[in-house]
Task: inverse folding
């Protein structure tokens, strides 16, 4: 399947996407790389069923005004595996990528499993983190009573029969997104899942249930935006409310009508929220479309603000 590319913001040229691999880490990026801007770069961390191309709708829109980097996490896509795969290890690899790119600090945007990784990055390496965007994610495993072995078995059973992530991608994407998710954005989400090696997915399934960041949420100093889809059943609203309530400087936004993959299912709303939340670059350099986004963000009718 060819990787579909979402449309850019109306009125802006589409920033070029470039793929890279160095020292075992692979990533895709777009946007300015010079230092004559006020804003920090953005590092995007994909979910359990994603890879770097899952963020194309963000890179092609936000890349006009931020340097945007989306990696293949260790063992995914073209990145080398990390053995053992642990949350602190993943966070250290994210820092290593920033070091390779000579980036001192970055804003971190994480979806689901990637949001959990973002928590460990903020806790373990606070000096490398600007602001956090945590989408459809959780601070601990099993808050709803789900057992670790049951959860892992449900996700490993098909791999144990010889099926690959490419075989499973379409059905899984449809099971975690809202009814009506279709078109190029769905195609992109499926293509991102199909890039996962079986070994990488297996390692990630064993890693994810070790998430236990909740006792330390109060230590996070980064200003945080929590985003969730209205119909997300994978990480329900209660999980996002924990993040909002226990991180000292956090706010919560709900995108109506969509499920677990907010950046893919509602890319325009998601991108507008990110633009409104993150510090903008030098206003002389910001695109006209971005200025329109910033000014409209607080009045956008399809955003539901959940106060404390």
Result:
């Amino acid at each position: 399947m060819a990787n579909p590319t979402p449309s850019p913001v109306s009125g802006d040229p589409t920033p070029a996407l470039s793929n890279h691999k160095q020292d075992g880490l692979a990533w895709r990026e777009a946007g300015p790389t010079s230092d004559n801007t006020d804003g920090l770069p953005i590092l995007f961390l994909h979910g359990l069923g994603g890879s770097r191309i899952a963020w194309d709708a963000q890179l092609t829109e936000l890349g006009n005004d931020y340097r945007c980097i989306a990696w293949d996490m260790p063992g995914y896509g073209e990145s080398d595996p990390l053995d053992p795969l642990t949350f602190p290890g993943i966070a250290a690899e994210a820092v290593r990528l920033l070091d390779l790119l000579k980036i001192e600090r970055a804003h971190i945007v994480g979806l689901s499993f990637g949001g959990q990784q973002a928590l460990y990055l903020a806790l373990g390496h606070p000096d490398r983190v600007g602001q956090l965007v945590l989408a459809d994610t959780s601070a601990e495993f099993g808050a709803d009573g789900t057992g670790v072995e049951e959860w892992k078995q449900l996700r490993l059973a098909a791999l144990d029969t010889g099926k690959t992530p490419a075989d499973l991608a379409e059905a899984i994407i449809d099971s975690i997104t809202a009814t009506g998710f279709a078109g190029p954005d769905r195609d992109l989400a499926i293509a991102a899942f199909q890039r996962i090696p079986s070994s990488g997915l297996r390692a990630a399934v064993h890693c994810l249930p070790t998430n236990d960041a909740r006792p330390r949420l109060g230590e996070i100093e980064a200003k945080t935006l929590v985003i969730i889809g209205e119909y997300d059943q994978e990480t329900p609203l209660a999980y996002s409310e924990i993040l909002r309530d226990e991180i000292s400087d956090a706010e919560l936004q709900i995108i109506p009508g969509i499920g677990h993959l907010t950046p893919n299912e509602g890319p325009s709303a998601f991108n507008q929220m990110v633009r409104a939340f993150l510090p903008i670059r030098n206003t002389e350099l910001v695109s006209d479309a971005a200025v329109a986004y910033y000014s409209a963000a607080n009045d956008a009718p399809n955003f539901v603000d959940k106060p404390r």
